[in-house]
Each structure stands twice: as C-alpha cells, then as structure tokens.
Amino acid sequence: MTEPDGIEVIRYTRLVPYTEALDIQLERWDAVVRGQAPDALLLLEHPPVITLGREARQTHLLADPQALREAGVETVECDRGGDVTYHGPGQLVGYPIIDLRRYSLSIRSYIRALEEALIQTLARHGVEGRREEGLTGVWHAKGKAAAIGVRVRRWTAYHGVALNVDPNMDHFKFIVPCGIQERPVTSLREILETPVSMDEIAAQFSHQFLSHFANLRADAVTGNA
C-alpha cells in the first residue's frame, strides 16, 4: 500500500446538498486513511442549510421550523466542532480531507493554517482579514467573513471553512452565527460594495491553500516544522 502525496482539488459547480457533501467527505476520508487516495480539497456551494455542530445550543437557532420551511432553509445536525452555522449559495465552502501527520500539524495549528489561507485570499482583493483572540474564523472590521468548523479522526481532518462571498445575508438572521452574540457577519460583497466572482474566489483560495500546505509539507519533510 503506497502513501499518496499531494492534494487533489475537486470543484463542484452545482449546488451540493449538505448530507450528500458529508457522504462524499466520509468516503474520501476513508480512502485517505487507508492510503488509497491523496489528500483532497473539495470546493462547493450548498443549497440553504443551517448546520448544528457538536457544541450547538438550540437557543442559537432563532427561527421556528415553519419559518425555515417557508424560507427554503434545511436544518441538519452534524459531527463537526462548533455551534450553529449557515451555508447557502454565494458562500464558498472548502472541505479539506487532510492527514495532519504529513504536515506535522496539531489540530490548533491546522485551524491557524486554514485561517491563513483565507486571510491571504481576502488580501488578494485588498481586504484586511484578521484573527480574533479566543475565536476561530476570519474577521473584518465589518464582521465575520469566514467560519471554520472541523472534525479530526485518526489524525485525518474533514469538514472545513465557509467564506461569505455573496450569500443571502438575511438567512443569517435565523441563527446566532457560531454561537457568538452581538457580533455581525459580513461578506466580500458587503465589504467591497461590488459583485465578486465565485470562480475567481474559488481559484484564489485553492491557490493559497495549496501553496501554504506545500510549504508546511516541505517543512515537515525537512524537520523545520
């Protein structure tokens, strides 16, 4: 059994239902763990869905089932870390399936690496993204621009990141995003006040992600991590 190297990028141009995407992740996770496939980065958009992570509180879901049905928003419980999150069209979702041992990454340093790839993607548009002490994700002066929620089993990660490019911001009113009270959520469209190409953002994030993890891999191989 050989150990594949590199990261395969898989871009879905259709909307992928959340549960279908989770099945795809788990199938690839199993193949990566068995050494039958390389690490992967799935890039996609979901139909409107609210996901409840392992630390989710029902009080952070602000809309009743009837209101969500009328808005066409699904609700799904999942096994990622974190609280309540919204996904929908206009939001770039990235699901890396990554064997952290290949990059000498702890879970904490893996999350920092995801944040860095997002920060560099925003920087390509002249947008200053930043970390916030004690919180995950990427923030801007106008609010939270990207969320992160991961799950790691057998040192192989899945779930991932969600970058708000131009989603329906009204849907975030149905939740307390990530369980953080009184902190706004924003998008690239709101920050730049102009339309942004999803294809362009997906390509830029993919480039930043691959470049950053290639450097981490090189450091791990040479012992400089």
Verbal overview:
By secondary structure, the chain is of the alpha+beta class. It has one domain (7-220): BirA Bifunctional Protein, domain 2, CATH 3.30.930.10. The chain is 31% helix and 27% strand. It has 5 helices and 9 strands, in the order βαββαβββαβββαα. Strands 1-2-6-9-8-7 form a 6-stranded mixed beta sheet, sandwiched between helices. A 3-stranded mixed beta sheet has the order 4-3-5, with no helix packed on it. A hairpin with a 2-residue loop joins β8 and β9. α3 (107-123) packs across α5 (198-222). It is globular, with a radius of gyration of 17 Å. The relative contact order is 0.18. The mean pLDDT is 91.
Strand order of the largest sheet: 1-2-6-9-8-7
Radius of gyration: 17 Å
Catalogue the unreliable spans.
Answer: none
Ends distance: 26 Å
Strand content bin: 25-35%
Task: Tag the structure with descriptive keywords.
6-stranded mixed beta sheet; BirA Bifunctional Protein, domain 2; single chain; 31% helix; alpha+beta; 27% strand; 225 residues; 3-stranded mixed beta sheet
Condensed summary:
The protein is 31% helix and 27% strand. By secondary structure, it is of the alpha+beta class.
Topology:
Blueprint: E1 7-15, H1 18-33, E2 39-45, E3 49-52, H2 65-71, E4 74-77, E5 84-87, E6 91-99, H3 107-123, E7 138-140, E8 143-153, E9 156-164, H4 188-192, H5 198-222
Parallel strand pairs: 1-2, 3-4
Antiparallel strand pairs: 2-6, 3-5, 6-9, 7-8, 8-9
